[in-house]
Specification:
InterPro entries: ACT-like_dom_sf (IPR045865), ACT_dom (IPR002912), UPF0735_ACT_dom-cont (IPR008310). With 146 residues, this protein is an alpha+beta fold. Helix content is 38%, strand content 23%. The chain folds into two domains: 46 residues; 81 residues, Alpha-Beta Plaits. The protein is elongated, with a radius of gyration of 19 Å.
């Protein structure tokens, strides 16, 4: 029996170009912007053999989170209304919040862990992270597990 596969979360800019192009070709096919693998690979500038070699190994991060329970960790300033704005951001995105755990604030900051079911997300998880991080009083928002 072989070893189980190992997975890494890597920022797209750090990936070899071929992986990004394979992911883009898969996206074109899924959205119907390309009707065939040949058409999709031509559109992104890779060979069909490269597409078939990597297609099962390359998956956008958001695909892996869809329909799952994901744990988010958010560092907030200890100010009135900040947690409320974070929860509102999650609700507006379609995430179903299952759990909220907030630690006692220290040095003006509180660490909040949010468990959310993501099948109803109306935006990519990366966008939810970005929108939440941009909220006033949010210092950091990241995914711990999914």
């Amino acid at each position: 029996m072989g070893k189980p596969p190992k997975y890494f979360i890597v920022e797209a800019s750090a990936l070899p170009e071929i992986f990004r192009k394979v992911a883009e070709a898969k996206r074109l096919l899924e959205l119907g912007e390309a009707e065939t693998v040949h058409q999709a690979t031509e559109m992104v500038g890779i060979s069909r053999s490269a597409f078939y070699k990597y297609k099962d190994a390359v998956r956008p991060f958001n695909d892996m989170l869809h329909g799952r329970i994901v744990t988010f960790q958010v560092r907030l300033r200890d100010e009135p209304g900040v947690l409320s704005s974070v929860l509102n951001s999650f609700a507006l995105s379609g995430a179903n919040i299952l759990t909220i755990n907030q630690g006692i604030p220290t040095e003006g900051c509180a660490l909040v862990t949010i468990g959310a079911e993501t099948s109803g997300l109306q935006i990519p998880a990366e966008e939810l992270l970005s929108r939440t991080t941009d909220l006033k009083g949010v210092l950091r928002c990241e995914i711990l597990a999914g």
